[in-house]
Design a protein that fits this description.
four-stranded mixed β-sheet; 5 helices; 141 residues; single chain; 18% strand; 4 strands
Amino acid sequence: MAVSTVNFPQAYADYERCVRNLIPVNFRQIERSTIFYASGRTKLAPEVLEQLDLIIRYVKADKRIKRVVVDGHTDSAGDKESNIRVSKQRANLVVAYFKKAGISSKRIVMRWHGDRYPTAANDTDEGQARNRRVTIRLDRE
């Protein structure tokens, strides 16, 4: 048996391009994402931008994604007003990044909660670190 190499280079190039364009995650892996912050910080770190870029890539590829829900949170350090402001800033920066990348504002829901919904006890440094976050949830139709 012999295999012809006629047109193989083009077919192989097409295959490689296809593989490069595959999204390295599935819906279950990216449906819920969390970004953590240092105390009082709102800036998006480079590793966070990579995570957001992957979410953006997925949202653009999966036409069944109808809504992107972004929730900002803080730990209990600081006063309530400051925590509300910081949680809003965190969520707003993520939303602005999504919009700049081409995700329609009609698909984005932004909320901010201050320290109202902790996922861990705020009486330890570790617990506070887990509460300083933005969560991103992708909703399908």
